[in-house]
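Progress report, Aim 2. The chain analyzed during this reporting quarter is listed below.
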Amino acid sequence: MTQEENICHTCKNDPAQRDDCRCTRDGKNCINTHFTLALVAVIFSCAGGFFSIAIALAALILSLRAQDLIKNDLLEEAKSMAFWSALFSWLTILIAILPIIAVFFFGGAILAALGAILAAA
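Predicted structure tokens for the chain:
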């Protein structure tokens, strides 16, 4: 199999994309940098609470770093950066959604506790 046959079918048609396409037909060298997940994490952190923005920005930076490493053919380092990007992204989303889940399940108890505190004052 030549190098031309080894390039994925979406990059064969456009020579400009051929440099960025490292994914082969058998699935080797396909690295998901989790860029979209990092962007969703940034949006959730801005909407859900500002205390997790730093983690979301770290995920975004790691995702961009993974893309840069893929372009430089440093695939092992890119896999590591992509893993940490995904971990920080999911952690940010969890931190942003956790208060919403807590209010949904324990909203009555939270309001009762606040009412008791106000009544005692």
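Residues 11 and 21 are 6 Å apart (CA to CA). Helices lie at 3-6, 9-12, 35-48, 53-71, 75-120. These observations will guide the mutagenesis work planned for the next reporting period.
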